[in-house]
Write a structure and sequence with these properties.
alpha+beta; 2 helices; 117 residues; two-stranded antiparallel sheet
Length: 117
């Protein structure tokens, strides 16, 4: 069974925290309260933010999405990756997000169907 235990959400504008919310439980057994400083894995959430940043930089002509990633990060060119472009990495990130979203959807739907039985 999938359990939504706890979460936190924070918004910072101009260096000032304007929203700081948290609640629920930090474990599936619901024995440990979610605290202000509960540490969690963010998994792939930064990929979406990074993708938006790359698009904004490309729109302002600060980054060339057709250029090799190695133009901006020389160490990336190791192990035969010298021709991988920024755009390819962007597409891989978006595809990864879609796959994770679909997997989560399948898990949620399956859980709800099992609860109906």
């Amino acid at each position: 069974m999938i359990a939504e235990c706890g979460a936190s959400f924070s918004v910072t504008i101009g260096g000032k925290t304007v929203v700081d919310l948290w609640g629920g439980y930090a474990d599936a057994a619901e024995t440990k309260q979610w605290e202000e400083d509960t540490i969690v894995n963010v998994y792939s959430t930064s990929k979406f933010v990074t993708a938006i940043c790359v698009l904004m930089l490309a729109e302002k002509k600060i980054i060339d999405i057709d250029a090799p990633v190695a133009d901006y990060w020389p160490e990336f060119a190791q192990s035969g990756k010298e021709n991988i472009t920024v755009l390819i990495i962007f597409y891989i990130s978006i595809l990864n997000l879609l796959i994770l979203w679909l997997l989560n959807l399948v898990l949620v739907v399956t859980d709800r169907l099992l609860n109906l039985l």
